[in-house]
Design goal:
Length: about 100
């Protein structure tokens, strides 16, 4: 499963990567758009996108909504525990519908 965390602080990436590795998730952390083309491709291939709404540019949110239609989940809180909780919630729904 591929999860993209869109937005967030740089310091969260290492903790989230470790968390994802323990659960067998391929996690991509994007908080600064390096290339719009690469971002579009990553968003369209993701199983779901977690958008940290307080820490992401409006342009990135619009791009996520267009490229990952129906796969976006929005999180207003910015802490690593809340982001992990959101990912766990989506995983639970995917594997226990």
């Amino acid at each position: 499963m591929t999860v993209i965390v869109l937005g967030g602080h740089d310091r969260l990436e290492a903790q989230l990567q470790s968390y994802a590795k323990d659960r067998g998730i391929n996690l991509k952390f994007i908080n600064k758009p390096k290339s719009k083309r690469n971002m579009k491709e990553a968003l369209s291939k993701a199983d779901f996108v977690l958008v940290v709404t307080k820490l992401v540019a409006h342009e990135m949110v619009d791009l996520a909504k267009r490229c990952a239609q129906g796969k976006c989940r929005f999180c207003a809180k910015t802490g690593v525990c809340e982001i992990k909780r959101e990912i766990d919630t989506v995983l639970a729904k995917k594997f226990n519908p």
